[in-house]
Design a protein that fits this description.
Layout (H helix, E strand, L loop, with lengths): L12 H9 L5 H14 L2 H10 L1 H13 L6 H21 L1 H5 L4 H11 L6 H20 L5 H8 L13 H9 L25 H25 L5 H23 L29 H18 L10 H12 L1 H14 L7 H15 L6 H4 L5 H13 L13 H17 L8 H19 L4 H23 L7 H13 L3 H23 L18 H11 L22
Helix pairs in contact: 1-2, 4-5, 5-8, 8-11, 8-12, 9-12, 11-12, 11-13, 11-14, 12-14, 13-14, 13-15, 13-16, 14-15, 16-18, 16-19, 18-20, 19-21, 19-24, 20-21, 20-22, 21-23
InterPro entries: Tuberin/Ral-act_asu
GO molecular function, one term: GTPase activator activity
């Protein structure tokens, strides 16, 4: 009945159905009529079409991929993409059928051919999307295997596995394993189409970035494209993918993320360890950058505009904060972001923006708003993560000075902005002052440019918070804190720190006189011109303009929430 409806223009769709299901008809003609039908039907009708004609659809997929000819790259890609598009409709519109195991081995065999490591990028990107859909459908019905987990982990070329294995070798062995296409008959090919291998280290790094960015983007997007009859199954998919990303990707490059990472409920902030400087092009750095970026984008998705936070990100945000394990993983990764090379400044700014919004309570962290964690405990953790930036081994890099200084200004501004929160717990004030003075003292004796450029802002922040904590926060400042401030200012090798102290004394003296005898002492005209402070916005813009390296060349993928405000 529904297949006999008239299309716009008076075309009888029943004829298109007949042509689509005719297994003796030319493959590309059948694809054309399938597209015509899908363009005309509602979602419910599309699902019914796929379920009623699942055999004919799979026959079409088989014929299209069977006919791929590796001797002609252009034609081979066209045939492959048509076959994969048809398979995609089947996976998305009949997930119950696919997930329950229907044609599982045959579909897996087709995907082995499509995800072959040496296929062209355009075909492999489609194949990765389809594998993710297939992987999720099977998982919902308990049909995934350890082999599928390993394939998911090895989809990306040059991803740094902790055991040192090569992902492309593992994937190639899988694609050529039993159950794959038989390569002996002349009309079958084990690959869709080959391309030249990549050997240059820089090209390998760039290729890993492209694939990892796309994989993370697809994880959010493809979950939303599966047409389930029950929305709870979509949430199951998101839980599954989040768990697999943590287990098979994040734990590979952060091996102690769970054994020595943050335990928010337990009050553990994560273990301290020395950071070994790494090269920007190191695959470990690239993988850490993109995984931290994706987790931060998911966590920030409720803080950006509706246009930028699509449904996939919001679903994964809900799943992320509903899991204690995933939340702890996120917080651990936010801390790891502060240890990245400064070529990764873009994602570091986004992390600072997210943590600052939670610390300043412009947006409450979900685990705080639901009562799982107190404001005091969460604030102590956020301060710990933010100020850990000042222990980075990359701060003395003169080529990245603008980046390091602009991030520092953002962090110190957040610290000073805490003065506006009158109900901040005393323990938070004490910890903030202690950590800030410790960082300032350590940096004030170092002779590199970063220490010089941040000496005045550090002194200004320490003194501002000290006065505010005592007068507004009600903190009884211990003598050891005053001794720490004295040692810091006395030991600083930069005159800018002393200048800030002198300004503070002038302001306090003027206030005391005004309070005591109601006289406002006018400052004498300054005879020495002070070096003007560069505005934070201008410094950040300059830093972002000068920042080079692969990490800054984002494609806008991985969920697309890059503009969360962290870039100023």
């Amino acid at each position: 009945e529904m297949f006999g409806r008239k299309q716009k223009g008076g075309v009888d769709l029943s004829g298109s159905v007949s042509r689509f299901v005719d297994v003796h008809r030319d493959c590309f003609s059948r694809v054309k009529h399938l597209k015509l039908l899908l363009d005309s039907f509602s979602v419910q009708e599309k699902r019914q079409l796929m379920e009623e004609y699942s055999f004919e659809t799979f026959h079409l997929v088989d014929e299209l991929l069977l006919s791929c000819d590796v001797s002609s790259s252009a034609q081979g890609a066209i045939e492959a993409e048509s076959g994969l598009w048809t398979l995609e409709q089947l996976l998305c519109l009949a997930p119950q059928l696919v997930g329950s195991g229907w044609q599982q081995h045959a579909i897996e065999s087709l995907l082995k051919k499509a995800i072959y490591p040496h296929n062209v990028l355009s075909v492999r990107k489609i194949a990765i999307r389809l594998f993710l859909i297939f992987y999720q459908c099977l998982a919902v019905y308990g049909n995934r295997s350890g082999v599928m987990d390993r394939v998911f982990q090895c989809l990306l070329p040059y991803f740094p596995l902790s055991g040192g294995e090569k992902t492309q070798v593992i994937l190639q062995e899988y694609c050529q394993s039993a159950g794959s296409w038989d390569t002996n008959p002349p009309n079958r090919s084990s690959r869709v189409i080959s391309r030249e291998g990549t050997s240059n280290a820089r090209e390998k790094a760039q290729l890993l970035q492209v694939y990892l960015d796309k994989l993370l983007e697809y994880c959010c997007r493809e979950t939303m494209r599966i047409e389930w009859d029950d929305e709870e199954k979509r949430r199951e998919c998101a839980h599954f993918i989040m768990d697999r990303l943590i287990t098979l990707y994040i734990k590979e490059i952060f091996p102690d993320v769970e054994t020595n990472g943050v335990d928010m409920v337990g009050g553990w902030m994560g273990g301290e360890c020395e950071t070994t400087p790494l090269d920007t092009a190191d695959p470990v750095v690239i993988a850490r950058y993109w995984l931290i970026r994706w987790m931060n984008n998911v966590a920030s998705s409720t803080q950006v505009t509706q246009e930028m936070a699509h449904g996939g990100l919001l679903l994964y945000n809900s799943v992320l904060f509903s899991s204690e394990r995933a939340t702890n993983c996120l917080l651990t990764l936010l801390g790891e972001a502060m240890k990245l090379p400064l070529a990764c400044a873009n994602v570091m700014r986004k992390v600072v923006f997210l943590l600052s919004s939670w610390l300043l309570q412009t947006k409450f962290a979900p685990f705080v708003s639901n009562g799982s964690v107190s404001v005091e405990s969460s604030s102590l953790l956020f301060i710990h993560i933010l100020l850990s930036f000042f222990q980075s081994p990359y701060l003395d890099n003169p080529d990245r000075l603008d980046s390091s200084v602009s991030i520092s200004f953002d962090i110190l501004l957040t610290c000073r902005s805490l003065c506006r929160i009158s109900h901040l717990p005393v323990a938070v004030w004490s910890d903030l002052l202690s950590r800030l003075i410790s960082s300032a003292t350590r940096l004030s004796t170092q002779s590199h440019n970063f220490s010089h450029e941040t000496s005045a802002p550090f002194a200004n922040t320490v003194l501002t918070l000290l006065i505010t904590a005592k007068e507004i926060g009600g903190l009884i400042v211990d003598d050891s804190v005053w001794d720490g401030v004295h040692s810091y200012l006395e030991g600083s090798i930069w005159v800018d720190s002393t200048t800030q102290w002198a300004k503070c004394v002038q302001i306090l003296t003027r206030a005391i006189i005004y309070y005591a005898i109601d006289v406002d002492v006018q400052e004498k005209e300054k005879t020495v011109k002070e070096k003007p402070l560069v505005s934070v916005r201008r410094l950040r813009e300059r830093a972002m303009k000068n920042e080079g390296g692969m990490m800054e060349c984002e494609s806008g993928g991985s969920g697309g929430s890059g503009g969360n405000g962290g870039n100023g």
